[in-house]
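User: Fold this; tokens only.

Assistant: Input:
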Amino acid sequence: MSIQNKPLQRRGFLRGALATAVLLPLGGALASCAGGGTPEKSAAPGGDVDPTKNPFGVAATGKLDAVIFKGGYGIDYVEFAGAIVKKNFPELEISINPSTDIAQEMQPRFAGGTPPDLIDNSGAKSIGFSTILDQLEDLQSVIDANNLEGEKIAGTLFDGVLAPGTFDGKLAAINYVLTVYAWWYSASLFKENNWKVPTTWDEAYELGLEAKKKDKFLFVWGKEAATYYQTMAIESAIKEGGDEVRLALENLKPDCWSLPAVQSVFTAMEKIVKAGMFKPGGSGTVFTAAQAAWSNGQDALLYPSGSWIENEMKDQTKAGFEMTGAPVPVVSASPKIAQTGVRSAGGEPFIVPTKGANVAAGKELLRTMLSKEAATNFSKTKLAPTVVKGTVPADGFGSTALVSQTSMLDKAGKDIFTWNFVDTYGMNPDQLVPWNSFLDGKLDTAGLTKALQEITDKVAKDDSVKKIEVK
């Protein structure tokens, strides 16, 4: 596949806050998950277009092949939407398959011209968008269509959620989940010990000293999720240094990891590492086991993650834990963005390959997922908001984590931001190596900076990689 080194432009900020609404009744039935493997290619003849019921002209017969990343959210929420599609198109054969390694499984299918009709391009091993952009449908037609309730989808979404999936005016991906990034803690444990959630790195260090008195650690990590701490560090550095930091990283600038704001955060984290406030052995621990040591064993006080963490650990969380999120800390008393600012962005990017055997059906499944019925089902079962407004009640379905997300977004106001360079260029696998070494205490700030810059420079200098200019 030929890729031009043409800069693409993308906007980097998300605007809007999570609203509350009356819970809508659920409907439909659970769909079954078909077996794995590559299905036979279907000609999928076009059906009659009905702007209300069938805007993409899905044929009455044919096959729909979807591959969904099986991470913290599972795949049953897509099966739920698939059951609705099946009800509307009873003769359509629907195959919804899980994957834990999207890149490995999907790249051969893209190369062979037989990609699925809908893909959730998520997870640590997702496909870098710069490598498949020219093979994806423009999903503006989905946004312009009406949802199942008869409302234009564009008017039902939170402001700014389409920006991360838009490149040079092409809406190549629709991110489904409104992910809020934070560090998470047990509100009940903090109340029991009269601990306050830190707002600065100095306060975090002091909390780590208090944790030691209780034979606990400040942090814990697992090898596959060591870069969760990179996410936390970048967010803190952007709040400290503002757009200068965000744009330098997004645009792969030389020495971007050496900016003062970034270095101040790395230095603060190194102090915590050297003080033994990270539970040892993380680089040899499966990340879910490490997370369980926090959520069930309460070996550590804080854990940085996206808002998928509650659902991911729902079966391994201590009773009465009261999982709650809070904005990550800043270094100084005068950051460029308030400490209450948060990183929030659409997650779980869904794409429709142009060479899918049944593109219309892929879009129809995505349209169904964006209905109030399917979005409400997701929020209720996964305890996380989607990009669809008006689907989360004020009590968060009884979830303290979901209520805290609403609170964080409300308090952040306009200080809501995101970045995308790690996913855009598929850097995460390479970045995991130095971060595991850093958290292990085997790499200092200088070594971490050097390693991350080398990874960044390699991408920046690779003329075969399409660059995305962020303004």
